[in-house]
C-alpha cells in the first residue's frame, strides 16, 4: 500500500508530495538524534533509546514541490529487529545509519541495506549516513570506504553529525530531490501520530517561508 500522495492546490501553489521514510541501524548510532535535529532543530546529549518505533513528520521545500516526510524512527536493539519489516514495508525512502567510531555498526548497516534491497519496495531510495562525524578523532570507518560501498550499491551517502547539525538537513533534502514526484499516488489515508512541524528552519532544510 503506497503512502505517496501528490496534489496541486486550486490556487496553483506548490504541489505537495507525501513519502514514508524509515530509519534503520544499530542501537545508539544516533537515529533518533538525527530525526530530532531535522524535525525540531534540537540535540539531546543523552537520548533515550527508542522502543519499537517513533513517528514524526517534517516537510522539505523544493522549487515547485513541498515534500512531506512521514518518518518512522525504528529501534536498533536486536529484540526489535523482527518488527522492522512492518515499518519499511511500503516506504519510499530509507536512511541506514552507522556510527563512524564503531566498525561493527557499519557492518550492520550493510546488512540492513541488503535486507532493504531484498525485501523493501523495488524503487526505494536508500541513503547511508555515517553519523557522529563530530567525533572524527575516534574514527574507525573511513569516509572513502563508506563512499565506495555506497557507490557500489547506488546509495546516497553523507557523513552527518546530529550534534553539530552537519549534513542533517542535506541528507533529507538529497532524498527529497531523488524521490519521484510526477505521479498521483493512491495513499491519502495519512498515518496517525504526533506531527512536530519545525518552525525555525535555521540550518537550511526546513519548510518554505
Automatic annotation (TrEMBL):
It is found in: Early endosome. Keywords: Endosome, GTP-binding, Hydrolase, Lipoprotein, Nucleotide-binding, Prenylation, Protein transport, Transport. NCBIfam families: small_GTP. GO terms for biological process: protein transport. GO terms for molecular function: G protein activity; GTP binding. The keyword Disulfide bond does not apply. It catalyses: GTP + H2O = GDP + phosphate + H(+). Residues 182-209 are annotated as: Disordered. Its EC number is 3.6.5.2. The lineage of its organism: Eukaryota, Metazoa, Spiralia, Lophotrochozoa, Annelida. SMART domains: RAB (SM00175), RAN (SM00176), RAS (SM00173), RHO (SM00174). It comes from Dimorphilus gyrociliatus. Pfam families: Ras. This is small monomeric GTPase. InterPro entries: P-loop_NTPase, Small_GTP-bd, Small_GTPase. It is an enzyme of class 3 (hydrolase). Belongs to the small GTPase superfamily. Rab family. One of its GO terms (cellular component) is early endosome. CDD domains: Rab5_related.
Amino acid at each position: 500500500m503506497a503512502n505517496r500522495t501528490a496534489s496541486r492546490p486550486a490556487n496553483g501553489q506548490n504541489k505537495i508530495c507525501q513519502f514514508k521514510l524509515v530509519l534503520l541501524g544499530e542501537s545508539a548510532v544516533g537515529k533518533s538524534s538525527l530525526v530530532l535535529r531535522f524535525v525540531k532543530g534540537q540535540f539531546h546529549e543523552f537520548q533515550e533509546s527508542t522502543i519499537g518505533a517513533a513517528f514524526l513528520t517534517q516537510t522539505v521545500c523544493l522549487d515547485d514541490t513541498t515534500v512531506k516526510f512521514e518518518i518512522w524512527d525504528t529501534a536498533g536493539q536486536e529484540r526489535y529487529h523482527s518488527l522492522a519489516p512492518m515499518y519499511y514495508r511500503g516506504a519510499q525512502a530509507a536512511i541506514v545509519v552507522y556510527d563512524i567510531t564503531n566498525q561493527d555498526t557499519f557492518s550492520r548497516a550493510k546488512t540492513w541495506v541488503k535486507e532493504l534491497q531484498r525485501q523493501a519496495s523495488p524503487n526505494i531510495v536508500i541513503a547511508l549516513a555515517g553519523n557522529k562525524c563530530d567525533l572524527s578523532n575516534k574514527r574507525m570507518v573511513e569516509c572513502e570506504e563508506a563512499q565506495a560501498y555506497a557507490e557500489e550499491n547506488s546509495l546516497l551517502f553523507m557523513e552527518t553529525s546530529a550534534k553539530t547539525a552537519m549534513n542533517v538537513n542535506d541528507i533529507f533534502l538529497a532524498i527529497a530531490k531523488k524521490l519521484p514526484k510526477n505521479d498521483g499516488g493512491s495513499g491519502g489515508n495519512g498515518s496517525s501520530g504526533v506531527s512536530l512541524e519545525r518552525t525555525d528552519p535555521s540550518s537550511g532544510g526546513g519548510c518554505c517561508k
